[in-house]
Amino acid sequence: MTSHPRFPTPFGVDPHDPLLALPKVSLHDHLDGGLRPQTIIELADEIGYQLPSNNAGELQLWFRDACDSGDLVRYLETFDHTTALMQTHANLHRVATEWVLDQVADGVIYAEARWAPEQHLAGGLSLDEAVDAVQAGLDAGVAEAALEGKTIVVGQLITAMRHADRSVEIAELALRHRDAGAVGFDIAGAELGFPASNHREAFELLHRENFPVTIHAGEADGVLSVWEAVQLCNAQRIGHGVRLIEDCDLSDPGNPRLGRLAQWVRDRHVPLELCPSSNVQTAAAPSIAEHPITWFKNQGFTVALSPDNRLMSGTSMTREMRLLMDEAGWDHDDLLWVSVNALQNAFLDLPDREALLDELLLPGFEGSSV
To answer: What is an example of a Pfam family matching this protein (predicted)?
Structure first.
């Protein structure tokens, strides 16, 4: 087995970039979208799985290029390769451990690992065994980081697939693990044609049980998808939500007008988990410079910045911050603002959020030259 650096430089980042040192909060980061390329090669070799390349650098480029098509369906197909390798306790444990260490290397102090257990049963694991395997890996990563004097808090976002019919079962799974690492629930996968309202029974169960919910919406489908997530399914956060811009009239830049839903989302501080590089790849946004995240920020929406799928986008939290500074005119205060937004809306108890907020507001964040 190839030796990995414990805390590798994140995707797409200059190792000397001062933004690396800034504390960060990552709310939208898929477990199966952040594998290390060398890990993929090693796990594939163990089971004889055919990959597009057996060279780590070439494989990383293949994933990114395959996702640059502007087609969400093709983007999602790349996950066939990663999920195929995450079907045993050992592999889930390893991927989860490395996921944590990569967050630490990126300066992340709180992260939610988003993944769909129902996609990881081909090796004979039960749903509960899969969740336990990931939790053991996350815990191992946290412990390994602590040995190096690095602190991070992580949780699982248990996710159901919107094209399947197991959402109630997965909601019940999340509730069984709510005191053992599961911090929230999500639905993901192909959005267009598979509305959140198909899963209302699951969301109503979670709402009755006071369990946090975020919903992928407003990425491959438009305003109605966001409306269903917020108004029918009781989502506390929106995964992406970039197409909420379609409910805003920007014809007069000096006097933009918000539609009823956009105004509701803004005024009630419903967080938008925006992922600029990923949104550009899937054609939900035209470019980093023109990504609605900047407009939303300037209009007072509650915006959280995330990388979505670090492998597929060749990105990281640090790279997303750097892109916004270099291409969208963000400054240091904007980065602090978006980080505080994310932490305030993390699926974490208030005392724990407040403790992390002290770390986020350390003088180094405000004083660094970036």
So the answer is: A_deaminase
